Amino acid sequence: ECRINAEAPMSDFSPSCGRITRYYPAGGIGVRIDSHIYQDYEVSPYYDSLLGKLIVHRPSRDEAIKTMQRSLSEFVIEGIKTNIPLHTAIFKHPRFIDGQIDTTFLERYLIR
């Protein structure tokens, strides 16, 4: 599961509000999107930044990772910043793929 937020991870996770100008959710076998947003949706600065959850379910961890990588590459939200690029980087990182992660993973390998 990837929690898709309206935020800029590389700018100290600052919130991103405004109008979603383009929305194209990922889909396919084993992929589910739980979300309330749509194209032209206005993301308010007064509520939680959660836009939705991208959930994949496959028979193995390797298949789930590949399905999530594909889903993240297809998921389009424009007009605001999201954490989709961060999720993409996580799911491509060799240490994540090998299951060698801990609570310092982001600080050590992705966000400096």
Structure description:
With about 110 residues, the chain is an alpha+beta fold. It has 4 helices and 9 strands, in the order E-E-E-E-E-E-E-E-H-E-H-H-H. The strands form 4 sheets. A 3-stranded antiparallel beta sheet has the order 1-8-6, covered by helices on one side. A hairpin with a 5-residue loop joins strand 2 and strand 3. The two termini are about 25 Å apart. The model has no long low-confidence stretch (mean pLDDT about 95).
Which features would summarize this protein structure in a list?
single chain, 112 residues, alpha+beta, three-stranded antiparallel β-sheet, 4 helices
Range of helix content: 25-40%
Main beta-sheet strand count, sense and barrel state: 3 strands, antiparallel
Number of strands: 9
Distance between the termini: 24 Å
Which structural class do the helices and strands define?
alpha+beta
Strand content: 25-35%
Count of alpha and pi helical runs: 4
Radius of gyration: 14 Å
Shape, principal axes of CA atoms: globular
Q: Please trace the helix and strand order, writing H or E for each element.
A: EEEEEEEEHEHHH
Low-confidence stretches: none
Described by its quaternary structure, the protein is single chain
Mean pLDDT across all amino acids: 95
Give a short summary of the structure:
It is built from four helices and nine strands. It is α+β, with helices and mostly antiparallel strands and 112 residues long.
